[in-house]
Amino acid sequence: LCCALxxxxxxxTTMRSPSMRPNYYFGxxxxxxxxxxxxxxxxxxxxxxxxxxxxxIAKRVASxxxxxxxxxxxxxxxNLLSNIEERDSVQYNTLLNVLAKASPAFIYGKMAAEWADDxxxxxxxxxxxxxxxxxxxxxxxxxxxxxxxxxSGGPPLVRVKPNVRSYVTVMDAYSRVGMTAAAQRxxxxxxx
Length: 192
Prior knowledge:
Number of helices: 8
Structural class: mainly alpha
Mean pLDDT: 79
Distance between the termini: 44 Å
């Protein structure tokens, strides 16, 4: 218990440090597996691996100097997320960040800001589905005629929930477009 408490206190102290950057943790995870880049990392196919890849793409798109490179990286991120069955908010928010940094570019025939808006809508829809499934599980569990096998395994997880970062990142993507319609969409997002 004492060791666990010290670990938590150490983590909190580190997180409060003004020099702390989110990418530090991704770098530390790569170092832990002895990898210098994502291409050489031998991490099992998991959420961590996907999050690391998306974070690497986000880092590269932020430092890309050409619009073409930003579009290529945004396409990579979209393709990566499309291949994931169980997505979470971290993955969605990282993709939104990539799209905001690529804005006002066109990706697969749509503005990056429009892609970000569509991803935000997908997040809201998926969140509603997951909350509904979770509520149905609890209703079934509390039902007097519930079957034990129907509720075994626990309630379905709610893995996706749009948060302030999600909305702000989509607004950032639209702010880079510089059109009146984009400004109107940002205003609509503020009212949601």
